[in-house]
What does this fold into?
Amino acid sequence: MQPITTLLLFVLFAPLVTNDDPPLVTDVDAQPLVAHVTRLSDALQIVGRPLADAERARFDALRVEESDRDVVEGIQRLLDPHVLIHVNINPESRVKVRRGEAPAELMQNGWRSFLVKVVNEAGVTASLEVSSPQAQAVYTPGTNVPDPKVSVSAGDVRDRWADVDLFRKPPLVERLSGLGVEYAILSVYARDVGRREATLAFDVGQGTQDLGFRAETAVLFDARPAVEVEFGVVDHDGEPTTANFVIEDALGRIYPAPSKRLAPDFFFHPQVYRADGDVVRLPPGEFSVTWARGPEYLEGRRTIRVPEDGARHRETFELERWIFPRRHGWYSGDHHVHGGGCAHYESPSAGVRPEDMRVHQLGEDLNVACVLSWGPCWYFQKEFFEGRVSDLSTPDYQMRYDVEVSGFPSQHCGHLCLLRLTEDDYPGTERIEQWPSWDLPILRWGQAQGGVVGFSHSGWGLAVETDELPNLEMPAFDGIGANEFIVDVTHDAVDFISAVDTPYVWELNIWYHTLNCGFRARISGETDFPCIYGERIGLGRSYCRLDDQLDFDGFCEALKDGRSYVGDGRSHLMDFAVNGHPVGVEGSEVRLDEGGPVRISARVAARLAETPDEELRGLDYRQKPYWHVERARVGDSRRVPVEVIVNGQPVARREIDADGSLTDLEIDVELERSSWVALRILPSSHTNPVFVIIGDQPIRASADSARWCLEAVDVCFASKVGRTRPEERPAMSDAYEHARQAYRRILSESD
It folds into this structure.
């Protein structure tokens, strides 16, 4: 090699290969640096990496040095051994970095904190930012397409082992001060054990990175193994079970780190689900653990200490019920759960698998989980449809894959839940785009194969301004809720309308009006997980009465017959009957020769915290959570009202103590004409109706309801016809005309 070439290469690349320690910064005022390091020392205590006693003593001695230069240089000599990365911001605000002296030691499934030294020649006061390709999420969030492409490979998951974060909480400030030298705290999380490389990049805003990749550096970390913490999970009866757990450290950081979670742990949850004997790997230290198992259980909380010795460690968590509906023959179910779409990831797989959803079902004590394949990830998720109960099911916990018609051409008319199907492809279709563009043909097809069918998230498109129930405001019928329900119910083509996951006034109003006209569609509770509610499955539930042990067909028949009540699981309306005739039995019909008193009976319970939750009960009914027992609290008491509803109107009310105890309720009410009767604790739970037929007369409870329904047909038609295929519009028009004629006849028969 010629000497001139060697010299040129040295000049070009010398800045990249030098290993000299960066010089100490001296042109800095001592007082603000001392103040900064005082806050830094307090922050290091908070993150669990305090300075040693000797280092604190040295810092205290430096604070009284007379020479500013001695103070400034002494502080840097004290702290620089703890620096993982040196960041230099040159006078043009360009950032370049280099490796510091601190050992790159991590802890599997834990956070380890280091110092970052910032030499700020430009006096920048922006926020210092850090990023790393190894800190990217191990998933791609859903984009709600039917057949998403893989955008995170198995290799990507393997490489994305880290998480990085700069501590910005008090006593530190979020932005750089502009001082010539200061320090930040970098925390690094390791998912894996062993030696792993991560590239760390820093900037102070777009365009501030230096050229030639000098704003980033690769660091080879070494992560020690975490402690295997075995969870003992004991049910109220002493049997092993599955529960949900939220594990936090003193800084409120969640374990395992959400950004590194794949199924069955969901990244959009703080909780994880563990069965008895399962393991969570945790670093040594103290953790706050909260555990529960659905709304029928009390929440537990305590602190655990993971030992330093690295040996396998066991912690036992005992669950406590406040109510056990299954013991009384009432089984819980959520008919609207998804394994793909919305908050689920779509890569590295298109949503999650049945075995993952099963863990969540068990951890929320949900007896029936209807996992519905829908538009997003449709072609992958529909592979799990078998036309029968999943092989993962057990006698007390059954799961079945069926269909929600959402993301299909008819969705503008209202999303549909199709349960207990034998075939999940509409006749003559291979792609979603080929399905009908309005609802009635789909509902009829579902019923023809023995399905139980109804509308999802009913309130969307039925918004009104009032909180009166029922009310005569006319909604726009411009959404994806129970919109065409107003037509389909007249064709006896819809078995249920959904509740609990939209504002209760919107979803109950249309149901009340159609009941007042004599139609008998039932109500069913749902969550629409993880779309409307992503917190957990079973936030909206149906409780169905079964005489024998759980059977999915029996559960669906109970939904269809209305042998059920719906709610948030925090209040219960069991064994509702009129004159001893149970709801949902023999058509839910009681026949009387003439009007007079009838006896309403039920076993009711609710549980409120002793202290009101002001945030919850201060919400407008149009804000989530739409159904919650706290909203039913009477004043500052620990009581809730149980109302008897006749033809949509409350006619009697009893307050009960919401302490979790079961109360036998009996109320006599007068009925002068054929009516539907129900119980509610609003907005927490609601029974299906019992239909009291007097003198063989049909229920014609309200001419106003009939007029509302008649007008609603026209409003709905105007809203939906434009997005229905032209070739389907004649049949659609005929179906709507049938509904108009039905409501006109009912109006003529109504008071």
Remarks:
- The first helix runs from residue 3 to 17.
